[in-house]
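Residues pack. One example:


***
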Amino acid sequence: MSAYFEYLKEMVIRFFSDLGRFFNKVFASPWADVPGNFDSYGSIFGSYSPEFGFWGWFFWVLFLILFIALIAGIGFLIFILIRKYVKFYKREVDKDELQSQVERLNYELYTAVQEKDKILNLKVGYMGLKPEDGKQSGENEEQQVDVDELNSRFPKLVHVDKAYKGVDMTIPFKDGLSLEELCNSLRNYAASQEHLYYKIETIRQLFAGIATSKLIILEGISGTGKTSLAYVLGKFFNFDSAIIPVQPSWKDRSELLGYYNEFTKKFNESEFLKALYVTTYRKDLDVIVLDEMNLARIEYYFAEFLSIMEMRDTSDWLIDLIPSTQPGDPINLKEGKLLIPQNVVFFGTANNDDSTFTISDKVYDRAISLFFDDKGRPFDAEYQDPINVPYNQLKALFDDAINQYPISDAMLDKFNALDNFVIKKFKLAFGNRILKQLTTFIPVYVACGGKESDGFDFIFANKILKKFESLNLAFLKDELKELNTQLDKLYGKNTFPMSHATIDGFIKNY
């Protein structure tokens, strides 16, 4: 036994001795001669240095500096490489850690869904019902759709698809309906059910504006019922208006519609986009309100819509959302584009104060603007229920009005004379867009129960006289007085009350 331990001791000593010699030979032996080499370097230097002379010493110092710089450069390069390697290694570790966290979160989500399924099954069992045949526990249709929404790039829009799936949105035509009746009914509904009081002229201007443009601007001082009018219009047609608060930071379309996030691979959908997508399923008139729309510059964030709505072919009213489609995208999104439905109308409320931007001519030219300068006065109104009217019927009423109440030649001649006067005195022209809007607004306004001259008065005051604010009116008071006289000469006294009031305001305030 003692012989074995002697053997073991000698074996261990020999092994570690050999191991030590190995490491010494590999790592230490190559450097064993270096101290001696330094001595030889000194000997060589001592042999030749006495005969260097001035230039010899000069070049020796220069060589020494360059040599030290070379060694320092090599050391710095090694340091940089080590540092980059450490950063790369840390980044890779972070990626692995992030991937691990994503996998863990996915597992936890899966576990949570499973727990939710179990709870739903317990509820179903408690109610005395049975899960559908052919489906495993927790795999009912509602849950499956929820997973589809979660996995979709457009979860909000896919949720809309789910909500309207299989729903019949057909609305029958309402017999005997006229635009005048529609105006009176809306006014009575607002007064009797919402305690909101509007002049009948305002309601007529509203419907004529809807027939003329997809953008209606409600502006004026705060508290005069601007937002309420858009709100009550939705209530009247039995579908609540979507009210979207505009933020001062809005600068482009991404604030309005949302944007595709390359990291999450999902589209960050805005409430505006969701409201717009809902209108693709509906058959009635749908209202989307941009509340306080001039807190930001309208011609920036709403520019694409302003341009699209100028196109004559409504099949080209397409909004690009994403370059290409993939399975699971919303049903009504075609090739990454969304078609703006014709049954939607955009309302914008605007306060005129120091906290807002001035609405540009580009916006005014494309919109119909209603101005509110006082609160409505209460009146007795018949009780009126909401009504269901398909947009196609409303559009048919507009088309019938255009055919039934075309603008008279006499009124067009007078308006052309007024146009020539404004060009001569103020260097402003009406423009083809305004003349085109006349041919729709005036007939519909008349069909709503208004007078043709009042329709012209509204257009002149809200389309032409608004442009006067860009002029130096302090030096044009005589011309403004002449314009008042010209209006009386063409249309008769007290015929254009809105325009006269606006012109008198210019003369007084400038």
